[in-house]
Amino acid sequence: MSGLCWGRAPHERQQPMAQTRPLGHVSSYFPYELPYLAPTAPAMAALSLPFFFFKIELGACQVAQQLSLHTLLWQPRVCCFRSWVQTYTPLVKPCCGLQNNFLARYVSLPNQNKIWTVTVSPELRDRTPLVMVHGFGGGVGLWILNMDSLSARRTLHTFDLLGFGRSSRPAFPRDPEGAEDEFVTSIETWRETMGIPSMILLGHSLGGFLATSYSIKYPERVKHLILVDPWGFPLRPTDPSEIRAPPTWVKAVASVLGRSNPLAVLRVAGPWGPGLVQRFRPDFKRKFADFFEDDTISEYIYHCNAQNPSGETAFKSMMESFGWARRPMLERIHLIRKDVPITMIYGANTWIDTSTGKKVKLQRPDSYVRDMEIEGASHHVYADQPHIFNAVVEEICDSVD
């Protein structure tokens, strides 16, 4: 079978490690740690060998994935559909169309957690790298419309936040401050492990909240802070008339918060989960239509959130009523060092409070703060208007070096 080769027994094989080859051919070897629902008995018998390899062609990049049987197949915790077999393809496919050289691998932290990381244009080392942090329920694949453009003249790093996507899913502290600190510490440990001295730090939604918290604690590592439709900044209004009406999917998520984690319904739905994503978020398929003709993005979002809700639980402890943070960032953003420039990018049609940008300016009168809105964009600015978004971010990056 093309693309399938067999590996040695565990005690005979070497430990997997990331390897970089000459430009145009970047490879990565990594342990695949995502859960899968157990197949039927005949399939189990057919896959009874201890170790095997999948080799997937990713354009200019090859990724050889070493899988053990127990990591490929798992017994469901919340789903009784034992005959359903999940595929790992949706979690790999979104990066397949990249034109620039890229390296995809797990970055192991000292505490044994692993952060799934994609580095684009690793050969461009003369400029400050751009680091992009995704929002709640997302992953590196959602930056697919931006990666090539934003890595044309500098290295770009993006990673799955701890507790999300393909990264490790440890237990987080249950208090909001502890959960936030766990996220921030994992980002700093990842930076140290990667050997990145300083960066242009961009965060979307929850990622914007965490990027701001990181900049408060480690300002010397941030050359420019870019906040894209950041979540968790304003204080919750006491007057309901001051609250922007959220989209339908936000209302649906909020309706289950009192009983479970925000995306629990996806895990309970089993094989119908991808259909739920498409039903509640049909806009995602439209946003990425120029890149994917099929349901890749909907399936990707589902598979990112069909696992142990580690980061999801942490997010729940940090928020109240989904749209608001228990520890609003507006109360703390003045703590960022004055010489750290901040740009805030909003979608003109977002449900996030865009007046936050002006309030940040008032709190930082002696610092560079720029706020702007992109017409025709909602919360996912980077996907709604990718060309405009990319041009704005490129301009910001060029102002750094």
From TrEMBL:
A GO biological process held by the record: phosphatidic acid biosynthetic process
Keyword Lipid metabolism among UniProt keywords: yes
Gene3D superfamilies to which the protein is assigned, alphabetical: alpha/beta hydrolase
Alphabetical list of SUPFAM superfamilies matching this protein: alpha/beta-Hydrolases
GO MF annotation list: lysophosphatidic acid acyltransferase activity; phosphatidylcholine lysophospholipase activity
Enzymatic reactions: 1-O-(1Z-octadecenoyl)-2-(9Z-octadecenoyl)-sn-glycero-3-phospho-N-hexadecanoyl-ethanolamine + H2O = 1-O-(1Z-octadecenyl)-sn-glycero-3-phospho-N-hexadecanoyl-ethanolamine + (9Z)-octadecenoate + H(+); N,1-diacyl-sn-glycero-3-phosphoethanolamine + H2O = N-acyl-sn-glycero-3-phosphoethanolamine + a fatty acid + H(+); N-octadecanoyl-1-(9Z-octadecenoyl)-sn-glycero-3-phosphoethanolamine + H2O = N-octadecanoyl-sn-glycero-3-phospho-ethanolamine + (9Z)-octadecenoate + H(+); an N-acyl-1,2-diacyl-sn-glycero-3-phosphoethanolamine + H2O = N,1-diacyl-sn-glycero-3-phosphoethanolamine + a fatty acid + H(+)
Pfam family, one: Abhydrolase_1
Key words, A-Z: Hydrolase, Lipid degradation, Lipid metabolism
Residues of the signal peptide: none
Annotated family: Belongs to the peptidase S33 family. ABHD4/ABHD5 subfamily.
Name recorded for this polypeptide: (Lyso)-N-acylphosphatidylethanolamine lipase
